[in-house]
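// run 5 | inverse folding | seed 20
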């Protein structure tokens, strides 16, 4: 089991997931609601999402290591592990949608500023808008999963098994 100054890494890494993914989801909502802010906030929001999503498998891996050294079977830990396995696919979908919204949107903004192809700009704007709305919805789903998974993890730590 990986430790940092005697503390298991799992609770430390989990904080990256718990903070960064909802923060990126909030940023995705802002970018979807105010597309003009995409130029300013799109890349930072995307970078936050990348780090948050990258932390998910690390949290899962360190959680498995921690569960292996916890004595006795604990059904609450089992619930937390099962829930934790649901996050990565949704988080990756969120990241992909956000990346499409930001990159296509920024490319469309750049093309529009240079007066190139109105049809290309309209199509790019529509793709970026749809991707931004879907990314915002996926961000809400990710945030809900983080809360659901985190609650089960807190219950596993703070409640006695079966009680």
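// decoded
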């Amino acid at each position: 089991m990986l430790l940092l100054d005697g503390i298991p890494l799992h609770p430390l890494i989990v904080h990256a997931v718990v903070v960064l993914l909802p923060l990126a989801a909030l940023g995705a909502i802002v970018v979807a609601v105010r597309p003009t802010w995409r130029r300013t906030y799109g890349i930072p929001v995307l970078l936050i999402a990348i780090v948050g999503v990258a932390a998910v498998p690390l949290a899962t891996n360190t959680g498995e290591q921690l569960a292996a050294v916890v004595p006795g079977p604990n059904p609450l830990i089992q619930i937390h592990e099962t829930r934790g396995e649901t996050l990565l696919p949704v988080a990756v979908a969120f990241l992909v949608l956000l990346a499409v919204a930001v990159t296509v949107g920024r490319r469309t903004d750049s093309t529009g500023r240079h007066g190139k192809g109105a049809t290309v700009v309209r199509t790019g704007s529509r793709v970026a808008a749809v991707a931004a709305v879907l990314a915002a919805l996926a961000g809400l789903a990710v945030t809900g999963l983080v809360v659901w998974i985190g609650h089960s993890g807190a219950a596993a730590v703070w409640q006695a098994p079966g009680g």
